[in-house]
Amino acid sequence: MSQYQVTAVIEDIDKAMSKLREAMKGLQVRTAGFKKDHDELARTVANYKVDLEDAQINNSK
């Protein structure tokens, strides 16, 4: 995967997480049981994004 592709994926992840945040605003996450799943997803995606950024930095050296 080229550096450009990694950058595009990172930007797409940011866009998707922003859309998720907006979508979750109207939900009663605590009563619907989504809070735990949302937090787990957000944490996992954040870790993946950091791994991509690290790989991108290491490949550019």
Number of helical regions = 3
Shape descriptor:
elongated
Q: What structural category arises from helix and sheet content? A: mainly alpha
Poorly predicted spans = none
Give the fraction of residues assigned to helices: over 70%
Biggest beta-sheet profile: none
What value does the Rg take, in angstroms? 14 Å
Instruction: State the oligomer.
Output: single chain
What is the N-to-C order of secondary-structure elements (H for helix, E for strand)?
HHH
Distance between the termini: 15 Å
Task: Indicate how many domains the architecture comprises.
Answer: 1
Q: Write down the overall mean pLDDT.
A: 85
Strand percentage lies at: under 5%
Number of strands: 0
Structure explained in plain terms:
Keywords: Coiled coil. By secondary structure, the protein is an all-alpha fold. The chain has one domain. It is elongated, with a radius of gyration of 14 Å.
Quick tags:
61 residues, mainly alpha, 3 helices, 87% helix, elongated, coiled coil
SSE blueprint and pairings:
Layout: H1 3-24, H2 29-32, H3 34-60
Helix pairs in contact: 1-3
Task: Give a short summary of the structure.
This protein has about 60 residues and is mainly alpha-helical. It is built from three helices and no strands. The model has no long low-confidence stretch (mean pLDDT about 85).
